[in-house]
Specification:
By secondary structure, the chain is α+β, with helices and mostly antiparallel strands. Helix content is 20%, strand content 23%. It is elongated.
């Protein structure tokens, strides 16, 4: 039964690689001090997503200020504005939109928005599946690298084939598969195998065949 379950897991991972990768590239550029393969590398801003905890402060109006959890539908309900769309917006963008809404009730409102319990939209998360100790979706942070990601998921399992891992990334609207050498990076300390991660990346780690 154990071998059968392992076979199913390997088959599922292999199927994901085959279904999601439209083309293959042998290797990625090594990690730099900023995200690679982006056009506006200095303009990354966090986007609000479901599960985020928002603190909305309205100057001189504490009665309508407060903390709000973003619902799964990407909305929050405040004292004066019901079902306000917040997902996919930066905190600054959201603050300006709330000011426009509140201008119907308050003269010259001034709003600030801060975020806690970061989750971000699904499109901004980086996912690790397969033979990681804690496979999960991780909220992307600026300058995130493969090493940062592996630390977040606890590293590889005993049976992982880290050097057979794949990175699935959307490049110019096409899903591309890159080879990763996670064993060399994590176990041998080969920092040249470290690569930049981008929002929406998927890392697939297969089980080793013994």
């Amino acid at each position: 039964m154990k071998r059968f379950k392992s076979f199913l897991r390997i088959t599922t991972i292999a199927g994901l690689v085959g279904l999601t990768a439209c083309s293959s590239v042998s290797e990625l550029p090594e990690a730099t001090t900023r995200p690679s393969l982006t056009t506006d590398v200095n303009d990354y801003q966090y986007l609000i997503g479901p599960g985020d905890n928002l603190t909305i402060f309205v100057w001189r109006n504490p009665e309508i200020s407060g903390n709000f959890i973003v619902r799964p539908d990407g909305k929050v309900t405040t004292s004066l504005v019901e079902d306000l769309d917040v997902a996919g917006r930066t905190p600054t963008m959201l603050a300006r939109e709330i000011e426009e809404q509140l201008a119907q009730y308050i003269n010259n409102p001034r709003v600030t928005v801060s975020v806690g319990n970061f989750n971000g939209p699904l499109s901004e998360q980086v996912r690790v599946i397969g033979e990681a100790l804690n496979p999960s979706a991780i909220s992307y942070t600026e300058h995130m690298t493969l090493l940062d990601l592996m630390i977040s998921v606890g590293g590889l399992t005993e049976f992982a084939n880290g050097n057979g891992a794949k990175l699935i990334r959307v490049v110019n609207g096409e899903k591309v598969s890159y080879d990763l050498s996670i064993n060399d990076l994590v176990k041998k300390g080969d920092i040249e195998k470290n690569v930049d991660m981008l929002p929406g990346d998927i890392v697939i780690i297969p089980e080793a065949w013994f």
